[in-house]
What we know:
- By secondary structure, this protein is of the alpha/beta class.
- Helix content is about 45%, strand content about 20%.
Amino acid sequence: xxxxxxxLHKDKHSRARVGKLALAHGEMDTPAFMPVGTQGTVKAVxxxxxxxxxxxxxxxxxxxxFLRPGIEVIKKAGxxxxxxxxxxxxxxxxxxxxxxxxxxxxKVTDEGVQFQSHIDGFKHFLxxxxxxxxxxxxxxxxxxxxxxxxxxxxSKEQARLAMERTIDWARRSKAVELADQALFxxxxxxxxxxxxxxxxxxxxxxxxSGYAIGGVSVGEPKNLRYNTVDxxxxxxxxxKPRYLMGVGLPEDILGAIEQGVDMFDCVVPTRYGRNGTAFxxxxxITIRNSPFxxxxxxxxxxxxxxxxxxxxxxxxxxxxNTEEVLGLELVSMHNIHFFLNMMSRAREAxxxxxxxxxxxxxxxxxxxx
Length: 369
């Protein structure tokens, strides 16, 4: 089985929707947030804590895993699921963004990309077919094709060239035989409305398992990102999952859900957590700060995670200021729980046709400070 997506309910007052995605390693409810485990681990959060928080799927990065530990090691382990001890679904990103942002030197042609590893400077050349082959060996449930991501701002000529390559690479990726893995396509086109429409329409004609909106959160203003999602989401088929790549602040996720997006990923929860910022129902707090010296309440009184049930703000502040690893673990764990709980509440609100009301209530509290 590659994938089965069932659209269960559409909110009567917005484009928000709930669905069920069945994959080779299990089911997931949508809209969904995918914790990011770039190198085979969600930073500072153990797999058992992800399960306790309600994670149904995680994201790993094929580029990073290709460089370290190497595909042969993972194949010998029996595939990525066994290597990292995660039995539930995994989506692997192709690493296109990482190649374009991390590689020391790179040369992009229609055939593929030559680049130097950001780790040791070793030269590699990858074609779109190679990238699918890597993910085939990893055994992930959802596979992303190689795409060309351009930064904001860029000329329309640059955006069109990257879009044409992305479409061509998606077609070439689809020609690679996959047994029980679902292949999504990625819509590019920068902030040019006509390019985004054209890219979405041409990829829809190719009939992929799902569709992602890529090339966002690359420096563009939020209003342009919102516009891009609005344009693309109405073109994408209703019976296929829609994935907004790399967008991860609560207000941005909730806004995109309202536009009909089903899947999200971002490093925000754990990156913020490792730096001492906790997401709470009353907004973000920086736990290192002095106001929390004598604050013996939980990070978030409305949260039921392990950190909130057992430790105070004062203690967690102490951990950060004494550079104890437990501090960043607790806040990262809490943030993952916060995001996954937000998604669960969003799904419930959509099912009750009250998503707009939920979103307003949530953000009013979140932005109260």
